[in-house]
Amino acid sequence: MGAQRDDQPEVVVHVGDGSEEPHPVDPARPGVSATDPGPEHPFLLLTRSPADSIQARFLHDGTYELEHTTGAERRQLFTTDALLVRDIVWSWIQRDSWWSDTVAWVAIDPAIAELHALHTELSDMLDGISRMDSVADELDRALARADELLDDFDLDFEGSDDRAP
């Protein structure tokens, strides 16, 4: 009997595709889900579990931000060296200790992480409010147009009794 293939990959790959959230991509079967990263969301996120992941993001100033999470511990690194980013990510995938033993990671202060989470949450909320503003603007325009149309419509019903056929 042949060995069964485990449908759950050990590492799930997420890429930025221009949407707000990453989506998983199976590198063995990319199909239509393998799109180029959107220019406004250039990142690669690899996860083994919700508590074990590594993410590489290309920032607007030309540097890369790498962030690794193991349990509650979060570490970060900034570099302009794309080959170093590649080597770190590949080492993490291979479970080689080089990426954690050799590279100078900086622990992310929990207070800073909390501020970052709050910033993200507020940004998402403000984006929602700005969308509501555009909906309200459209509604205002529709109501103004309805007022214009109703002004042209004669609603004088009292005079209709005086008119004889």
Count of individual helical segments: 4
Q: What's the average pLDDT?
A: 74
Distance between the termini: 95 Å
- Helix and strand sequence: EEEEEEHHEHH
What is the number of E strands?
Answer: 7
Described by its quaternary structure, the protein is single chain
Q: How does the major sheet shape up?
A: 7 strands, antiparallel
Low-confidence stretches: 1-6, 30-37
Backbone structural class: alpha+beta
Shape descriptor: elongated
Binned strand content: 15-25%
Radius of gyration: 27 Å
Give the proportion of residues in helices.
25-40%
With strands numbered from the N-terminus, the spatial order across the biggest sheet is 2-1-3-4-5-6-7
Structure, explained:
With 165 residues, the protein is α+β, with helices and mostly antiparallel strands. It is built from four helices and seven strands; from the N terminus they run ββββββααβαα. It has helices at residues 82-93, 98-101, 110-152, 159-162; strands at 12-15, 23-25, 43-49, 52-58, 64-70, 73-79, 106-107. The longest helix is centred in the last third of the chain and has 43 residues, at 110-152. The radius of gyration is 27 Å and the shape is elongated.
